[in-house]
Amino acid sequence: MIRMSSSFIRTLREDPSDAEVASHKLLVRAGYIRRSAAGVYTWLPLGLKVMRKVEEIVREEMDAAGGHEVLFSALQPRAPYEASGRWEDYGPLLFRLKDRRGEDYLLAPTHEEMFALAVKDLFSSYKDLPITLYQIQSKYRDEARPRAGLLRVREFVMKDAYSFDVSDEGLDASYAAQREAYQRIFGRLGLETVICQADAGAMGGSRSEEFLHPTPVGEDTFVVSDGGYAANVEAVTTTPPPALSPEQIAALPAAHVEDTPGASTIAALTDFSNEVFPGQGPVAESGEWTRYEMLKHLVYQLTLPDGTTEPLVIAIPGDREVDEKRLEAAVSPATFAAFGPEDFAKHPVLKKGFIGPEGLGLESPSRIRYLVDPRVVPGSRWVAGAGQEDRHVYDLVFGRDFTADGTIEAAEVRDGDPAPDGSGPLRRTRGMEMGHIFQLGRKYAEALDLKVLDENGKQATVTMGSYGIGVTRAVAALAETHHDDKGLVWPRAVAPMDVHVLATGKDAAIFAEAERIASELEARGITVLYDDRPKVSPGVKFKDSELLGIPTSVVIGRGLAEGTVEVRDRASGEVDLVSPQDVLARVEAAVRGA
Amino acid sequence: MIRMSSSFIRTLREDPSDAEVASHKLLVRAGYIRRSAAGVYTWLPLGLKVMRKVEEIVREEMDAAGGHEVLFSALQPRAPYEASGRWEDYGPLLFRLKDRRGEDYLLAPTHEEMFALAVKDLFSSYKDLPITLYQIQSKYRDEARPRAGLLRVREFVMKDAYSFDVSDEGLDASYAAQREAYQRIFGRLGLETVICQADAGAMGGSRSEEFLHPTPVGEDTFVVSDGGYAANVEAVTTTPPPALSPEQIAALPAAHVEDTPGASTIAALTDFSNEVFPGQGPVAESGEWTRYEMLKHLVYQLTLPDGTTEPLVIAIPGDREVDEKRLEAAVSPATFAAFGPEDFAKHPVLKKGFIGPEGLGLESPSRIRYLVDPRVVPGSRWVAGAGQEDRHVYDLVFGRDFTADGTIEAAEVRDGDPAPDGSGPLRRTRGMEMGHIFQLGRKYAEALDLKVLDENGKQATVTMGSYGIGVTRAVAALAETHHDDKGLVWPRAVAPMDVHVLATGKDAAIFAEAERIASELEARGITVLYDDRPKVSPGVKFKDSELLGIPTSVVIGRGLAEGTVEVRDRASGEVDLVSPQDVLARVEAAVRGA
Q1: Of A296, A322, B132, B204, which has the fewest beta carbons less than 10 angstroms from its beta carbon?
Q2: Is B253 near chain A, with CB under 8 Å?
Q3: Which regions of chain A carry the CATH code 3.30.930.10?
Q4: Between chains, do A48 and B66 touch, taking CB under 8 Å as contact?
Q5: Which PROSITE patterns match (chains A, B) (predicted)?
Q6: What pTM was estimated for this model as a whole?
Q7: What is the pLDDT of residues B555-582, one digit of tens each?
């Protein structure tokens, strides 16, 4: 039993000044968490209890799925992360430090390398596999802009699991087992999640899915179709229009350069074209020109993982913007930045405002990498810069008049775009990443030389999966989803305590009866928060109780004289008057039966 | 149930090459832990289970003692530790790092500052106190020489508790409650501990006791008396001989300087004195000279926390050596180093080999700090260097011929020295620090301005205690104490699993029966490690079982045909033959009854 009179529970009347989202405001105000540095939180008693409940649900389902729990230090040496490339690739996200001998260490963001080495250390045969190992532990990432309470932090508790298999089919099975465990975990937590195809990003590997909890405060944008498709925008692939055959291409009009004075923007070029070449555009019947076919060329400065830089030109239909998150994912592990005036000065082939395909490409003398949107298919006709001030090329046909070094998924995804699997138009929505599962494949095992003897006695490289759930983030998501204007409303599975007993009034008999009820509930194995504060008004106690959000409360107050106590349900607000004799059974039914 | 055929348990036949102590060898060989960097270990499945059991015992007793559990990040900002002085004082023991903005952070060695700030944050009145908060969490210390497996590491799990009181009496009560909780914890763990008076060291504060587990592999030396006194050597205070009154001193012979050619060591000076002044020494009847009265003067270079250096001369009876740990504790937070030839050159008053009190002291022109052993009392007579080559002063009386800036506890403590409390002669022994409790007093509260309103409405500085138990170290101590030449022998309270079921042989009926027994034990709430490996010999299974050290094992093998299975007790080695029908009850009695 926690007695509020001698507890470390303190509620606050005011929202923290830096709080933007409900979970941040409420968890701080209700005394569940407390900030200790930017993106670093302290777990106060009730918060810790919620976190442990989430942790225990995750642990039970990991064990049920055949996982073996271990525990690694957050502090790890540089060498394994150097071997995998992550020491570099993680850039400033990684907390790095030196020990007293000057050796490099890091605070692990995840532990792929260490788990691979542990398996390498202890296992040697295909007979030892498959195995799935996991840990629940504090992780560190030096986020550029920690914000929103527990939603974007620099220290967080995570469950990370890793599977090890000899065959691709084995990896599929291990992945499926974790995927099902995740569905059970989020089901038990009462957190709606959508499984989205995801971009594997810096983790490498092939298949990857995110468990996104749909919420307007989510940082991730994802798309869904009515036919059941769901994906992170970074993972959406564009459905290109049909390409033309060489015969069809041959029948198209020849490209021609035109003077386009002042038309250095897509809008200006579209207007100019409709004015000067009316009826010659591609829109059926009207012959109108649209922004779509004004092929937009954008230049970026790429920084490769080894620190070298190079320009990148990408071309996308003129009616779309670049989605920087998609671009980021597409160029990863390289990073991109704006192409500055000095950079343009070094590359005269890039005539700002009038860039076109002419003179671009790794095979061209400029050796500038040139990538196009997937909609730029053979036979597609475009208007593009001619590489000279105030001139554009019309009827520029891809595959006949120009080519590229490849395609790039960098253009924004819009509501109404087709789902890649043909399941209908896409709809954009926002979500919070609750879990992420990856088929890493053999990337880490190769980097760290993790091999076992296969059935034929030959060395076979192991294939891995990695599977994460943000435990502390799940607490935030639960608070985000389960609250009202009065405070938190915990689902029973994760509530810090089962019942909140309140003694309201000054009468000693009230406190004696409340004490009896609280003790007898505890004796039945029900955890009790008991508001025994002697000089606090009923109003304050009710407000605190609503803020704290324990699912059931028992109020012992003035009604006691008439033989009743109140049993309140935090979620529905329902109040039942019951006799002190019946209250134990009534609460027990609520706690166990719900 | 853990099935060994698909587990992450692997025993090793060889001791790790760097292992010196039994706990290190056995925990690695039995697959409980695995090294990931110098002083950084990974907890494998069975090791983690033992650690969690220790953690849970600690948690239960902390809760029973009225503690409130919270959780702080290991990553903390510099400022609070700067305010307390620990950012500097901890020196190279502290892992320091910078974030992407260049701000200083540390990996906390303990959290006094953060707990004080949390209380300051939420509490404001004496009515909020007392409170005791605790956490169980990973701590970091950059030890110079990590060694002995889990005994001296750079990352470890610790329970650290902090008490907050308004009054000194309150602190005494909070301290007593923790002290009792510690006794219960070590009792439940089955770890013998001696409560030793300790030096508070860098933590500051007044009263401090260590819970030392007596063991020859312990790093701490402590002393005990038959009368019940126990103390860390750093904390032992010397019992001085009685001082003489001014009248008695006046009756003593006058000091006289003598030529003592070549007598530059204590041994040489003693021999010289007995040869040249026979019968004039202090030994009753014989008049012999002993090494005791040849007052030994030693010079050290002190480095103060602010980085400045100064010489320190200490004088101790010539029959004792300096104990560097006692000296270290005595000068803390300053540190000491040898006084080199260049240092001597700078201070001509320090005539090497013939240093005496002449010309020393903060009040003297040399301003050299001069401290003496507590046995140097008024009226005590000494022989000391005269500050000149080959000359010594005889009948030098403290309080008449020389004084000092104070006393220092730096001389070694020897077997037979009197206990400070008069409880008899001391005996030196070795131990391992399992817990440490401190009355910090107001040091941290003052540094961090932690005040509450007292009963009179005035600001009162809070007084604190801090209380630590090394959870991972307790696992090592348990392994150190509970093993034999075949392997680990876990006490039941911390055993990773309740029972080890072994199927030995090839007969399918044996495996079927073992499976049934293992499942039925699990159904009764008994945790089972099941050795179901199909092609492993009985000999290997027995060896592994002894190495793993689970208290009870059930062997289903050849005897099954005659209707018996074996129940083995790991500690006693006793083997009972029981029928498969009786085995469940037999094991349950062992698990629950022991």
Answers
A1: A322
A2: no
A3: 2-236+427-479
A4: no
A5: AA_TRNA_LIGASE_II
A6: 0.88
A7: 999 999 999 999 999 999 999 999 999 9
